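retry 2 of 3: previous attempt timed out while embedding copper (II) ion. Reduced batch size to 1 and resubmitted. Inputs unchanged:
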Amino acid sequence: MKKIFLGLTAFTAIALTACGSNNTSTTNNQNANAETTAVKQVADTTPANTATANVSVKNIIDAYLQLKNAFTKDNSSDAAAAGKTLQAAFENFDVKTLSADKTKSFSDIADDAKEHAEHIGANGGNIKHQREHFVMLSKDMADLIKTFGNGGQTLYKDFCPMANEGKGAVWISEMKDIKNPYLGKAMPTCGSVKEEIKQ
Ligand SMILES: [Cu+2]
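retry 2 succeeded.
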């Protein structure tokens, strides 16, 4: 047990160093630059089938972004409210606007995402638990956008190596600047843009 514990501690220390942007050495900065230039630019080639579906996707994305922004401010009650809005946006999505195979993809994503949104909605005051659900919810959102498009706005897929207890986690953002929803005000600029999902 002791060995495992020490191993984890060492890992955390490394992760902390990687994210302490104020104390980064020249080497770290070079890495950061290399990462920035390596950002993939992904054209949105898979928009939803119809204008109606596009509006529904946009409603889902907007509710998610509201949730994400509440987490960047460490605001658990705003996150709970946005979680409920997001759950409703998934429930109000009109699957009849989709083809059969897209309906299946949507349901697969929505069934999982709705549950995470519901837990976030029900756990105002427990931001740690809300953020655990946000890790998985953000994965679902990345899948949703891949299949159903970005709802008409340029989005960014960001990654934080420290989130999720050092296992790392993605989130979707509407802004190019990093504002970390997992670490909030404690470490707002930790992470980097991995993908730009163009309009
Ligand atoms: Cu929960």
